[in-house]
């Protein structure tokens, strides 16, 4: 990418050319989709209708955070409650590729229904280069199907418009800073949400456990960063594993699940290095997770694998 202002000017011109009528904007609250939403507003004004879909698979406090960012940027982002739809789509699904495809399809079908309200036929979304590279196609192997690429049904009635398609994450962050987006360096969060951090079946109870564990990791890592004992990592989160493990609660036996903590450093998400955090940080995380999820999660592990061979997310 050239300088952010040149990119912004050209992206606005391309959006105006690509959207002759009404458009929906998929605003997930992440940096990619927020940058796309800001560009769409600058290019299309009231012809762009931004939607934030509450899938029930989000981090703690995410809906309130999106509302705050929307107000700060003067973006009119509508919140669409859809947890029931997404849990129904994921019922009984354990294969990670199928999870991603079903989530992508659920998003598109929801956007198609919403599009009828304003006769919109375009969907602006924050697809970036790693999304379509990892989703495979042509001579590329499929590393993982990104819900906003391979998860889009072939019979969709909406035409996708992707102003950030050729940018990598570091370039998007530079653009976000230029656009005045708050928390431009906030860590990435997967589009399928906690569905790909709940390994195995996706149930409301398991998602609640993953959400709390994930929040604990974020809180403790942020606290360590503020204290100067850890440099700000690229990404840090918890994964709920479908592994039954024995624990002890008082004098009683516990038969629960395990959580794995992952902290990595990266530049563009194409490769990543596992961070070696202070032992005290890991102890605090493990103590809080096992205490706050008492009887549910008696064991906490730490993932030391780089990308490659592993991906950053587990699914």
Give the helices and strands, then pairings.
Blueprint lengths: L3 H15 L4 E4 L4 H14 L3 E7 L7 H12 L3 E5 L1 H7 L6 H20 L6 E3 L4 H6 L24 E3 L7 H11 L24 H24 L7 E15 L2 E14 L7 E2 L4 H14 L6 E4 L13
Parallel strand pairs: 1-2, 1-4, 2-3, 4-5, 7-9
Antiparallel strand pairs: 6-7, 7-8
Helix pairs in contact: 1-2, 1-7, 2-7, 8-9
Essential attributes:
Rossmann fold; four-stranded mixed beta sheet; GMP Synthetase, Chain A, domain 3; 315 residues; alpha/beta; five-stranded parallel beta sheet
Write a structural description:
It is a single chain. The radius of gyration is 20 Å and the shape is globular. The protein folds into 2 domains: 4-179, HUPs (Rossmann fold); 197-302, 2-Layer Sandwich (GMP Synthetase, Chain A, domain 3), CATH 3.30.300. The longest helix is centred in the last third of the chain and has 24 residues, at 204-227. The protein has a 5-stranded parallel sheet, sandwiched between helices. The relative contact order is 0.13. The protein is built from 9 helices and 9 strands. The protein is of the alpha/beta class.
Number of domains: 2
Helix content: 25-40%
Q: How far apart, in Å, are the first and last alpha carbons?
A: 29 Å
Radius of gyration: 20 Å
Strand line-up in the sheet with most strands: 3-2-1-4-5
Q: What are the secondary-structure elements, in order, as H or E?
A: HEHEHEHHEHEHHEEEHE
**CATH structural fold name of the largest domain:** Rossmann fold
In terms of structural class, how would the helical and strand content be classed? alpha/beta
Beta content comes to: 15-25%
CATH-defined superfamily of the largest domain: HUPs
Number of strands: 9
What is the overall pLDDT average? Answer: 93
- What would CATH call the architecture of the largest domain? 3-Layer(aba) Sandwich
Number of helices: 9
Low-confidence stretches: none
Name of the CATH first level of the largest domain = Alpha Beta
């Amino acid at each position: 990418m050239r300088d952010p202002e040149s990119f912004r000017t050209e992206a606005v011109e391309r959006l105006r050319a690509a959207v002759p009528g009404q458009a929906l904007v998929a605003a997930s609250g992440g940096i990619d989709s927020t940058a796309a939403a800001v560009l769409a507003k600058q290019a299309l004004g009231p012809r762009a209708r931004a939607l934030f879909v509450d899938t029930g698979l989000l981090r703690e406090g995410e809906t309130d955070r999106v509302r705050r960012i929307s107000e700060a940027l003067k973006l009119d982002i509508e919140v669409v409650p859809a947890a029931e739809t997404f849990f129904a789509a994921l019922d009984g699904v354990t294969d990670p590729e199928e999870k991603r495809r079903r989530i992508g399809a659920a998003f598109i079908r929801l956007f198609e229904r919403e599009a009828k309200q304003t006769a919109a036929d375009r969907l602006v979304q924050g697809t970036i280069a790693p999304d379509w590279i990892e989703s495979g196609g042509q001579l590329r192997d499929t590393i993982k199907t990104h819900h906003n690429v391979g998860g889009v049904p072939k019979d969709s009635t909406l035409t996708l418009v992707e102003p950030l398609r050729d940018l990598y994450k570091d370039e998007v962050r530079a653009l976000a800073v230029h656009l005045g987006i708050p928390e431009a360096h906030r860590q990435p969060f997967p589009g399928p949400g906690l569905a790909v951090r709940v390994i195995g079946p996706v149930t409301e109870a398991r998602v609640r456990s993953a959400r709390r564990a994930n929040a604990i990791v974020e809180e403790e890592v942020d606290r360590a960063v503020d204290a100067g004992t850890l440099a700000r990592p690229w990404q840090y989160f918890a994964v709920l594993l479908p592994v039954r493990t024995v624990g002890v609660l008082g004098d009683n036996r516990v038969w629960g699940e395990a959580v794995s903590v992952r902290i990595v450093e990266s530049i563009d998400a194409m490769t990543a290095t596992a961070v070696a955090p202070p032992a005290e940080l890991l102890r605090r995380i493990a103590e809080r997770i096992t205490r706050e999820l008492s009887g549910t999660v008696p064991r906490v592990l730490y993932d030391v694998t780089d990308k490659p061979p592993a991906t950053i997310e587990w699914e």
